[in-house]
Amino acid sequence: MRRWLTALVPTAAALGLLVPLASPAQAAPPDSELVLLWSRYNGVDEPHHIATLSCFPDPATGQHPDPVAACAALDAVDGQPSMLPDDARECTDEFDPVGILVIGTWGGAEVFYTEDFGNPCEAARGTAGVFDYA
Q1: Count of structural domains, the chain
Q2: Residue 12 pLDDT
Q3: Is the separation of the CB atoms in 62 and 32 below 8 Å?
Q4: How far apart are the first and last CA of the chain?
Q5: pLDDT of residue 92
Q6: Max alpha carbon distance in the chain (Å)?
Q7: pLDDT less than 70: residues of the chain
Q8: What is the CATH number of the domain that holds 111?
Q9: Tens digit of each residue's pLDDT (9 = 90 or more) over 53-86
Q10: Dihedral of alpha carbons 52, 102, 122, 130, sign
Q11: What residues contact 80, with CB distance under 8 A and at least 6 apart?
Q12: Strands of 98-106's sheet in order across
């Protein structure tokens, strides 16, 4: 937590201003819109799997099957897909490589991220479920 915020909390509490600040879930910052894409690398002409996310205003919207959960996961890492945690789901050792791509903006900052995974389950696991769609 930032030092100025740590110093501000006791003052805000003393003035009775903390109630509006203590909402359980904060919306993503304005201008937080992403396009997510994953694609298999198995040489078969399969379609790319694309989903959009608009994480502001609350509630999140988009073509992703669960935009609220996806935006919450991304918000927890300040919109940095590389920081998404592994969700520990079990995956098979099946070799069905996929590549993922995230492009867009988060809080007005440009986002561009790519990563390769051994199969679609590993992509979902390695991105806290954000890439759990097809």
Answers
A1: 1
A2: 34
A3: no
A4: 36
A5: 93
A6: 63
A7: 1-27, 42-47
A8: 3.30.350.10
A9: 999 988 999 999 999 999 999 999 999 999 999 9
A10: negative
A11: 106, 111, 113
A12: 49-54, 33-40, 98-106, 109-117
Residue 91 lies in a domain: yes
Q: How far apart are CA 97 and CA 87, in angstroms?
A: 19
Torsion, Cα of 59, 61, 66, 69 (10° steps): -40
In angstroms, the CA 83 to CA 43 distance is 29
Quote the domain boundaries for residue 101: 25-125
Q: How far apart are CA 22 and CA 14, in angstroms?
A: 14
CA distance 70 to 131: 8
Assign 17 to helix, strand or coil: coil
Instruction: Identify the helix (H) or strand (E) that includes residue 98.
Output: strand 98-106
Q: Considering the domain boundaries, does residue 110 fall inside one?
A: yes
Tell me if 83 is assigned to some domain. yes
Q: Is residue 1 part of a domain?
A: no
CA 129 to chain centre: 9
